[in-house]
Write a structure and sequence with these properties.
- 2 copies of one chain form a homodimer.
- By secondary structure, chain A is an alpha+beta fold.
- Chain A has 3 domains: about 230 residues, BirA Bifunctional Protein, domain 2 (2-Layer Sandwich); about 120 residues, YbaK/aminoacyl-tRNA synthetase-associated domain (YbaK protein, Alpha-Beta Complex); about 100 residues, Rossmann fold (3-Layer(aba) Sandwich).
- Chain A has 15 helices and 30 strands.
- In chain A, the strands form 8 sheets. In chain A, strands 3, 7, 8, 9, 10, 11, 12, 20 and 23 form a 9-stranded mixed beta sheet that branches. The first copy, chain A, has a 5-stranded mixed beta sheet with strand order 27-26-28-29-30, sandwiched between helices. In chain A, strands 16-14-15-17 form a 4-stranded mixed beta sheet.
- The longest helix of chain A is centred in the first third of the chain and has 21 residues.
- The relative contact order of chain A is 0.14.
- At the A-B interface, β1, β2, α2, β4 and α5 of A face β1, β2, α2, β4 and α5 of B.
Chain lengths: ~575, ~575
């Protein structure tokens, strides 16, 4: 490809409002262009990376007997009514009417379509197990798109669905996909990814893993034990808590006036947060009557994913002043409220001599004992893990890191095959097959690699997914000999199936070298009057900065050694 | 691929309501499954064909310096407002609101997105010419989906956009694309396709060609001269008309009572249709005041595409009784109507002694002369070509055939670059680049090939696009020797990169042979106790029915000869 004709421009300055490295570089290096909030056009370099990512995914899906299909982007409401998700999913599912007034949706995931494809076409147990997958455009009406291709509305995704007779068979296949995913991300050139246990969210099902690329700009919090390799998404991460001190206290109401937050109350009364109990109140989404009150020790934070799983519905933080509660003074003693589900976090277990709200304006209660005064029926785990908490397996300190979710795998169970009536004949009667589903966000992989493998000069593509292998960079192309040699090298390398981006512009060396770095092409070949004095070219490896000269007649052989993946 | 695990079933009977061969076979052979009216899932065999079609297209687009990009499926209204198409395109453009109430559309074509991608990224004349293309899902809210994948709402399309400094440069590139299209369809295995001149429709622009696969179930009428190779879509086809006889007549009003249609009037007055003039009335869509009246000789039919092009707006047949016209008695003499654009077809030129309506109930006028009595300012070509009309080039009789449009190419001009403000700096100031656009319906190619290359037994895929090359068909797989030999052949052929569909089911020979024919796999290999007596297999070529025996040890060599494309 001659850069003079390449669609897209390289720009020096990061456009205003962009503060994520990969986003800035992908725009500055001419990879993507925003069409609307969260909606992008992939320009030629990005589409080349996209295609390479897809090829890797396709090969590994085929290697575990995946059958590629193509589901529709636009689907009728009926399909999503059957699974119940037409009403259970929020606004991120884009619903609209077609010209006849029929309710349609834009696919953000395709469990319904996958089961539909199998209804009546798979009938007998000897057709199982099998896996189908597609690589297709998805749309998710994301409320807050951000960070370029990392959180978008429209994206390319590989989604796969497997069907099994038994849970054992699903588990065995799940393990295969797990390994295929490790291969895929490794082949894409990612080094810092891990698989973590996760919440299965709106997909339903029980066991699920996310593949996370660790990076500081990640949206997810990942809990990791360096010792025993325990990993989990914060949403489901566990830790061991130290036992609370047994310190006797005398219950006593005190005036705390304007002190409302845990910080304010602790300051006023000179107590440690660990000797307080705070309340967080929630509404149950889709059920106006019910509310949820969660009590946790003052030094810990609520993990809403865990709480949501316990409640069994979506929840949203709510001010319960209307229900007679006193904001800032809610306490776990003598709480008077109807239709409330009350949860006590296990951090409160055995807690003595602590402070909680008095459930009246301007007062708190000191010296409360959870076992003497509150007597909850049970304690639950509804808090987040903090950096330094103890590993649930080996008790060593846990780390909390940030990650971008690049893929996920779910053991779905029969949620969809049951609701949609997919039945398989077996020698022992009919059953609903057990499903697994497996996603990889292709565009997000592109952005994650750009984020993690880039430096202060620009992108640094791994060889396997780089848009081109080689940036052929004549310096002083107005020099006849430089130009002729460069053209000859370009033709030769193309013929040898190297992918070459040829900077055929008559611009300064500075612009060319900067562009080659910004675009992140792995190997740069400089041809200049000086290198030609010795009949050489200069090679620079983008990742390491290593530079060396190679005689022109040995160039192809040298590149054979370098361009490997 | 083992057929026992292949998603999809083969069915004997054509489901009710399906009367197009390709539609029936694609469903019966397990290639596609309908999700909603005009919306399909491609099952694995169809997706394999789809991928091969895409590869051919991609290779030929790259060969003419195409740069692959990916535009969004969902686009904001603003983009389509700029070109004016948000309001000018009818209901087939699906419009909806996202969660924030923003007006969005589903892409049915991407001229706007293509220009958007170039705005500010292409600034200088030396960046031109270039061509960008994508292969992406499109949605068109089709009022009447039909014939399986031939007319659908959602489809995969290759669309390409080129940008040029001069019309000459566009024409030169247009010719390149024309040739690339011929290569593409030839490589796909199509034999009966032609390129025809066409109307540029809603795309704007002047010169356009459609690539049509000729088949009786085609939706388009194509006019063809076997002699000089003139071809054109009926919408723009021309023909030479014979001169009208000069027969003097005396103008005279006659009572024609209930006779309203041309047939009735001709019968009553015993005149030939060629000596009548009929009127067809239209409303101008989007403009309530204006109407259009088209007069043509009674034996010819209005070509609404030509008329629409003359009017410059969409038109719809309308009863103009409200405007004071007398339905069935409208004539070209003494016509009294306001705000009417009146057109006279060239078939009326020189017509003498003809019958036309008297513009009053129950009367017509005989003996009218167009030059003496009507004196139109001009005649236009607004009629269809009939089978047997004279070729506009060589005067030989024309044929009218049916075709499916599988691709199209347009010289767009500056419609989009002007309206969207794309400016290029040249040594002589700034200009709006001149565009070409080029489409291929991938799913429609699949269906067209299925339609044209199939027989009474099922599909007959050309080798280059067949989902698999070989149908490996053991007869009596319960026989240990048949099974072992088949497994060995399967492994060996896979290792040799043949694409093999292996019928590993323990079902009757009849079912297997019928399925292999229905699915249309080009080469069938039968392994049976009988063929093994001589250490042979039997090969059948699907297209020709040719059968022969090959010693097992020579099988690979023989297949190397057969599996070529």
């Amino acid at each position: 490809m001659r850069i003079s004709k390449l669609l897209g421009e390289r720009i020096k300055e990061t456009p205003a409002g962009i503060n994520i490295k990969s986003h800035a570089y992908l725009i500055r290096a001419g990879y993507i262009k925003q069409v609307s909030n969260g909606i992008y056009t992939l320009l030629p370099p990005a589409q080349r990376v996209n295609q390479k990512l897809q090829s890797i995914i396709r090969e590994e899906m085929d290697a575990i007997d995946g059958q590629e299909v193509l589901f529709p982007v636009v689907m009728p409401r009926e399909l999503w009514d059957k699974s119940g998700r037409y009403s259970s999913i929020g606004q991120e599912l884009l619903r609209f009417k077609d010209r006849t007034g029929h309710d349609m949706v834009l696919g953000m995931t395709h469990e319904e379509a996958a089961v539909h494809a199998c209804l009546s076409t798979v009938r007998s147990y000897d057709q199982l197990p099998f896996m189908i997958y597609q690589i297709q455009t998805k749309y998710r009406d994301e409320a807050r798109p951000r960070a370029g291709l990392i959180r978008v509305k429209e994206f390319t995704m590989k989604d796969a669905y497997s069907f099994h007779l038994t849970s054992d068979d699903l588990e065995e296949y799940y393990e295969k996909v797990y390994k295929a995913y490790e291969k895929i991300f490794t082949r894409m050139g990612m080094k810092d990814f891990i698989a973590v246990k996760s919440d299965s969210g709106m997909m339903g099902g029980k066991i699920a893993h996310e593949f996370q690329l660790l990076t500081d700009i990640g949206e997810d919090s990942i809990v990791i034990c360096d010792e025993c390799k325990y990993t989990a998404n914060m949403e489901v991460a566990k830790c061991q808590l130290e036992e609370n001190d047994h310190v006797f206290g005398i219950k006593k109401e005190v005036f705390t006036g304007e002190a409302k937050t845990i910080e304010e109350v602790c300051n006023l009364l000179n107590v440690d947060k660990k000797h307080t109990c705070k309340a967080v109140c929630y509404a149950v989404v889709g059920n106006e009557k019910d509310v949820v009150i969660a009590f946790v020790r003052g030094d810990r934070e609520i993990n809403e994913a865990k709480l949501k799983a316990l409640v069994g519905s979506d929840i949203a933080v709510k001010d319960l002043t209307d229900s007679g509660l006193v904001k800032g003074n809610i306490g776990c003693l003598d709480l008077k409220i109807e239709n409330a589900k009350i949860f006590y976090d296990r951090s409160l277990e055995g807690l003595e001599n602590f402070v909680t709200g008095a459930n009246k304006e301007e007062y708190h209660i000191l010296g409360v004992s959870i076992s003497r005064d509150v007597k909850p029926e049970s304690f639950v785990d509804i808090t987040k893990v903090n950096d330094g908490d103890k590993c649930p397996i080996c008790v060593k300190p846990l780390k909390v890191k940030r990650g971008i979710e690049i893929g996920n795998i779910f053991q779905l169970g029969t949620k969809y095959t049951k609701s949609m009536g997919m039945l398989i004949n077996t020698p022992n009667g009919t059953i609903n097959p057990i499903m697994g589903c497996y996603g990889i966000g292709v565009g997000r992989c592109l952005a994650s690699i750009a984020e993690q493998y880039s430096d202060e000069k620009g992108l640094v593509w791994p060889m396997a997914v780089a848009p081109w292998h080689i940036y052929l960079c004549p310096i002083r192309i107005d020099d006849e000999s430089v130009k002729n040699t460069s053209e000859r090298i370009y033709e030769k390398l193309n013929a040898e199936n190297f992918e070459v981006l040829y900077d055929d512009r008559n611009v300064s060396a500075g612009i060319k070298l900067k562009d080659s770095e910004l675009m992140g092409i792995p190997v740069r070949i400089v041809v200049s009057p000086k290198t030609l004095e010795n009949n050489e070219v200069e090679i620079t490896i983008r990742e390491t900065g290593e530079k060396f000269f190679v005689p022109i007649e040995k160039l192809s052989r040298k590149l054979d050694e370098i361009v490997v993946y």
